[in-house]
C-alpha cells in the first residue's frame, strides 16, 4: 500500500506478571480499510486491542495516530482522539435506558437557559438520534427506546453497543466480537453496518472468531500468534483453512505476507 | 452490499415492523412487578399511604389533623435531609457512615464561629458548610483514589470526625439563648408559619425543596445519569467514558455539604448546639429512610423521592404508635420489619429482567 497508515504500533510489549501477553507486537491500520484480527485464544488479540483503545497501557513500544505519537492512559483519551470501541462485555449500564446508554459520557443538553444553566438533558433529541441509529441497524425489535438495557436480550444489547460506536467514531472503530451474540439477521445487519461505516471512510478493526464473517468483509487479515503479528494476508489470496493453519502454527506463512 | 451467504437469503422477506406482542399472557402479579420496576418510588409511596390509612382508622380524626401530619414532617426534616445525602452515596453502591457526625461537627463549627468568635453569622454558616464539604471530600478521595471500601473509609472518618468534634468543642453546649441573641440567622430553619392548622417550618420546606432539586439533578442532568451508571456497573461506566473517580468524589463531597446543611436545619430545630449529639444514631436513621425508600444498597437503582417517603413512613409509624400509647420499642421493632421487607421487595423487583 502506498497510503500512510492512520494508526501504527511498533514493538508493543505487555506483561501481566510472568505472562507475556504482547511480545514486541506491530500493528498497522490504513485509512478506509477493514482490518480483521484473528488468532487463537490467548494469542493476545484482546490485549493488543486494549492497548490501542487505551484500556491497558503497554509496558514498551509506541503507538502513532496520524503520524503523531500518542499514549492513551484511559479509554476516554482514546475516545477523545476519535477511536471508538465496542467491547466484548459491551460496557453498558443495565439500569439505564437505551438512549441514556448511547449518550453516556457525551450527553446532549437542551439549548438556551435550560441546558446552559439548569444543565437539563435534551431527552427527545437523544432518543430520536438513538432511535435513528437503531433503525439504521435494523434493530426494530426494540419497542421502547426508554426501556432499561437490562430488559433487552443479549443480541439487542450488542446492537445498542454497536450503534453507539458507529454513531460516534471519528477516526476508527474497534469491534471486539461484534457478531458473537447475534442472531443470523442481526449479524447480517452488523456486517452491513460495518461496510456502511467503511464507505463513510472510517477504518474498522474487527476482532472475530467467525471465519466466514472475517473473510467476507475484511480487506486485510492480521494473524496474531504468541503475542505478536505473525503475518498479514489478503483474504482473496488465501482460504479460511490457510488462515486457520497459520494462526494455529500448523503451517508457516509465506515470506511475502511476513513482510507486509 | 456484502455478498449474502446462502442461508441468509431468506432474510429478504423478513418482517420490518416494530415488534408487538399481546399483553393478555401476563398475569396481574407480573404487571405489578413491571410497574414497580419502572417506578421505584411507588413501593414506599404505597406503604406510606397504607400506614397513614391504618393509623388514621385506629386513632381517628386526631391523627388525620393537619397539625399532626405537619408535626411529623417537622420531626423528619433532619433525617430526611441526611437521607438525601445518603441516597446519593448509596446510588453509587457506597455507604456513608460519617454523615451524622459531619452534621454535628458542622453545627458546632457554625455555632462557635458565630457565637464564640463573633464572626458574622452568614460567614459562620459558610465556614460550617465548607467544613462539611471538606469531610465529604476526604471520604471521596479515599474511596476514589485509595480504592478503599466506602464502609471502611466512612467507619474510619466517623470515628475521626466524632473525636475531633469532642476535642475541638471540649463538649461544651452552646445555649439556645446565646444563639438567639448573637446569631438568630442560625435559627432560620426553626421558624414556622401556619397554613390553617398546619404548621410548617422552613426546615420542612428546605427538605422538600432539596429532595425535589436532587430528583431533578439525578434524572435530568448528565451528572445524575453518571451517578446511576457508576453505581450500576463501574467498569462499564468507565469504558463508556465516564470519569468515575470525579463522580465519586463529587458525590461524597456533596453528601458532606448536604450534611452540613442539615446541621443548619438542626440548629433551628434543637435551638441549642450540643456536641454530644454526635452519639445519636443519625447515620442509621438516614440509612433506614433510604433503604425503606427503596434505594438499592447494591447501587444504581431507586428514586430519591423514595427516600423522602421512607423518612415519612418512619415518622408516621413512630407518631402513630406514640399516639396509641404503645411502648416505644414497638417503633424500633416495626422499623426493623420495614427494612427487611423493603430489601426483600427490592430483590423481587430486580428479578423482572431475568
Automatic annotation (TrEMBL), chain A:
PROSITE patterns found in the cross-reference section: ABC_TRANSPORTER_2
Domain ABC transporter: 7-251
GO terms assigned for molecular function: ATP binding; ATP hydrolysis activity
Pfam families to which the protein is assigned, alphabetical: ABC_tran
Protein keywords: ATP-binding, Nucleotide-binding
SMART domains linked: AAA
Nucleotide-binding keyword on record: yes
Record SUPFAM superfamilies: P-loop containing nucleoside triphosphate hydrolases (SSF52540)
Protein name per UniProt: Sugar ABC transporter ATP-binding protein
Lineage: Bacteria, Pseudomonadati, Pseudomonadota, Alphaproteobacteria, Hyphomicrobiales
TrEMBL record, chain B:
InterPro entries: ABC_transp_permease
GO cellular component: plasma membrane
Membrane topology: Multi-pass membrane protein
Regions crossing the membrane: 41-64, 76-109, 121-144, 195-218, 247-267, 305-324, 330-349
CDD domains from the UniProt entry: TM_PBP1_transp_AraH_like
Intracellular or extracellular location(s): Cell membrane
Keywords: Cell membrane, Membrane, Transmembrane, Transmembrane helix
GO MF terms, alphabetically ordered: transmembrane transporter activity
One Pfam family named in its UniProt record: BPD_transp_2
UniProt superkingdom: Bacteria
Annotated PANTHER family: ABC TRANSPORTER PERMEASE PROTEIN YPHD-RELATED-RELATED
Protein name: Mannose ABC transporter membrane protein /fructose ABC transporter membrane protein /ribose ABC transporter membrane protein
Source organism (scientific name): Mesorhizobium muleiense
